[in-house]
Amino acid sequence: MPSATVQTAGERVLSGMRPTGRLHLGHYHGVLRNWVRLQHEHQCFFFVADWHALTTHYEDTAGLGGHVWDMVIDWLAAGVDPGAATIFVQSRVPEHAELHLLLSMITPLGWLERVPSYKDQQAQLADRNLDTYGFLGYPLLQAADILIYRAGLVPVGEDQVAHVELTREVARRFNHLYGREPGFEEKAEAAIAKMGKKQARLYRDLRRRYQERGDEEALEVARALLEEQQNLTVGDRERLYGYLEGGWRVILPEPEALLTPTPKVPGLDGRKMSKSYGNTVALRDPPDEVARKIRTMPTDPARVRRSDPGDPAKCPVWEWHRVYSDEATRAWVQEGCRSAGIGCVECKGRIIDAVLAELEPLQARAREYEEDPEIVRRIVAEGCEAAREVARETMQEVRQAMGLAYR
Ligand code: TRP
Ligand code: SF4
Question: What distance in angstroms lies between residue 61's CA and the mean position of ligand 1's atoms?
Answer without folding.
Answer: 19
